C-alpha cells in the first residue's frame, strides 16, 4: 500500500512538472529568440521587459484561477499571502537594483532584469503548482 502511494505521488509530481514546463516554455522560448535577435543592450533590455510583462500577466492569470471556487477563508489567506509577496518582490527588486548598480558595464543591467523577471516567473510557477497539486486525476 505504501509503495502504491509513493508511485502515485511521484507520478503526480512528474505530471505537475511537465505541465509547468509547458507553461514556461512559450515565454522562455520567446525571450530566447528575442535575445538571439537583439543587436544592442537596449534590444536585450526590451526583450526582458516583454518577458517580464508576459510573466506578470501569467501570474495574474494563475492567481485568478487559483482563487476561483475557493472558500472565503482560503481566498482571504491567499490574498494576504499574495499581498505580502508583492511587498517582498518590490523590496527585493530594490535590493537587486542597488546590488548591480555598483558594477561597471552594461551587462549588469541585463543580469538585474533577468533576476527581477525570475522572481515573477518563479511565483507564477508556484501558483500553478499549488492550484494543480490537488488534481489527483492528472
From TrEMBL:
A Pfam family annotated for this UniProt entry: LprI
Give the InterPro entries listed for this entry.
LprI-like_N
Keyword Cytoplasm found: no
Q: Can the keyword Signal be found in this entry's annotation?
A: yes
Lysozyme inhibitor LprI-like N-terminal domain sequence ranges: 37-127
**Alphabetic keyword roster:** Signal
Which segment of the chain is annotated as a signal peptide? 1-20
Protein name from the UniProt record: DUF1311 domain-containing protein
Name the species this protein comes from: Enterobacter mori
Output the lineage of the source organism: Bacteria, Pseudomonadati, Pseudomonadota, Gammaproteobacteria, Enterobacterales
